Amino acid sequence: MRRVLLACLCLWSCLFVSAATPQPKKGLDLPNPIVFVAQVPIPNDFVTIGATFGHHRATMSLVGRGGDLYIRYTDGSVRNLTRAAGLGNNGLQGAAAINVRDPIVHWDGQKVLFSMVVGAPEQFRYNDYYWQLYEITGLGPNDTPVVTKLPNQPETYNNIQPCYAPDDSIIFVSDQPRDGSRHHYPVRDEYESTPTPTGLWKLDPVSGNVHILNHAPSGAFNPIIDSDGRVIFSRWDHLQRDQQADGGVANQVPTTQGTFNYADESAQAARLPNRDELFPEPRAARSDLLQGTNLVGHSFNRFFVWQINTDGTGEEVINHIGRHEMISYFAQVFNDDGGIFEFISAVSGRFNERPIRNLFRPREDPTRPGTFYAIDAPEFGTHAAGQVVMFQGAAGANPDQMPFNYVTHRDTANTADQPSNNHSGLYRDVLVLSDGQVLAVHTPETRGDTNLGSRANPLSRYDFRIKLLQPAGEHQTAGAAITNGINETLSYYDPDVLVSYSGALWEMSPVELVASTRPTPHTDPVPEVERGVITQASVNMEALQQWMVERDLALVVSRNVTTRDANDRQQPFNLRVADTNTQTLGDDGQIYDVRYLQFFQADHVRGVGGTEDPAPGRRAIAQFMREPEEPANPPGATNPPGSVLLGNDGSMAAFVPARRALSWQLTDPQGVPVVRERFWLTFQPGEIRVCASCHGVNTADQAGNPEPVNEPEALRTLLQYWKSNQACVADQRDRDQNLSVNVLDAALLVNAVRDNDTSHDQNCDAVVNNDDVRRWCAGWLSL
């Protein structure tokens, strides 16, 4: 009996060591340690930890417990960092349980930022758990790791996928509502009204300032800082009408998922007996709404790579690339104009010959700045695993000349029950090392994942491991794994059922522990054309921007909205400003008059679950842009709601809400839509954003002309209106109001310059400086 007991103890000891201290993986020459995540497999792919969207929640059934942060040293040895820091446990997961995700390395290569959730429930206990941001130091083989929670982050929201900005502030993804309104939580996406992250956020851990950088109604993901100092991230673009509401109507099912509209965004808003929508046009499924129109019907569902500056300005698809340069097909907007036709990449003549469907988890190649890797994967079924692709996206690159390359074979972009010899499995989390070697998370499985076990004993088809890519003909394929595998035996309540797992954990999210150069933050200066108009209008640009900051406004400007990129023939492109000679034509077809640009803002007013007992949270839908309490744009009695009048030169200028997603459309004089924007965009307080054309020009517009360079008359008109509404009265020289203009007034003015007292402004540019002193002196001498 004693021998049997000793044998059991030895076997238990060996199992314990293999779980906590994996054996070294020899024979691989990696230049630096690799930090990565070990995750308990979750076979279900819908909004779980590895999914393409909705993967941000820490719910037990969606992510489980028992994962850890690991490091693989250059000698092949592997260490459990979180366990070495005194966190987490094997076996039954309880109050001390953890799970981790999304590591990123600091510029100095000495610490790692990541997300962690702490705690698991007792059976039948439904507790709230949130991912929070942590930092770990002490990463050497002989160090004791120390894990510290970042201060001042949103405590009762999920904060994931962080990265260090060049100034050491933290940019991350959160599901905190845009303006902090708890009654909007969980914010719901534009697809199935599923809880979603709300965008990118920025945290200064020292000052505690937290604010949203981009308001993304269906979510933004995986931000990184590239060598040009831009924030590069993926975003889910789903700007279409609510298919949850449409589904019931189109199929004559009265439930329509219990969707309804609130009267406004407030907590006390009335629940309305309707689900009306304004923008964009109806989906093709709503034949009842399309009947009698010339509309084809609009659906939009893409994951693209975006860029934004670290201060939240300049948001756009990376380098303004779009559907025309990437995907293979989409429909036109109208069905009664032969000059407007569907887009088919194979006959488009575009530069990029390799179609892309989606782009997930972008990473830059440190050995080739401006070269990015990403994953083109199906939306469902593979935990965001698919094909490794590569593209050239350095700042300023012309989208017309941005090639995409297939790193792994195109077959790996899709699942296959009967795969070809070219299908080498599915890939995610690609990482280019400092010596040019490429790692990726890989499974040899080619089918979609499913639970081969049960709820209590789940078993995934996938065995995600971190592997080196190696050449395979024209492409690359998975080679050797960097570890011998991470095995664990654990259990947790989900919370009703005890879930048990024993086996290999998924290896995910590798990062290289190495120092990197802090880039200079990318900026987009106001172009000289618009800067000149502002100067000519005797407006101080900094004072104007401060005025906007104080009111949460941005200024958007276009020079000639009748000009459109030559590649876009899916919406009207023969455009004329009504009642003027300003027009830009791409052929001799139908000409469309435009007169207004109408803005829409993403308001969280769509509810689900019925008006009697609605489910928590809200979805954003497009509503007419609202003016602030002090109207900022020139009023127009005949303007469509939320619109501004175009200049006779085709220009447009408008003050718009900041830190809220916006979209827009060109309308004719009667307010009928002509050209519709297909994305949401967010602007920052004080931002002056110029888009010279409406669909911006890459190389040439529809008439073969380059980007317009005219001084926008609409901007001049707007600035004149703005000045007329300021309290300043120019050339008030009697500063002490003693009915005499003398040197005492001059002294007051000099002091005002020193103290920046704008009440003594002489030229009404909203700032007091030497220009005002010179103006006062010139006026005094002329008396």
TrEMBL record:
Q: Does the keyword Metal-binding apply?
A: no
Protein name per Swiss-Prot or TrEMBL: Hydrazine synthase alpha subunit middle domain-containing protein
Q: Does the keyword Signal apply?
A: yes
Q: Which residues form the signal peptide?
A: 1-19
Which domain of life does the UniProt lineage start with?
Bacteria
Which species is the source of this protein? Acanthopleuribacter pedis
The residue ranges of the Hydrazine synthase alpha subunit middle domain are: 642-695
- One Pfam entry name: HZS_alpha
Q: Which UniProt keywords apply?
A: Signal
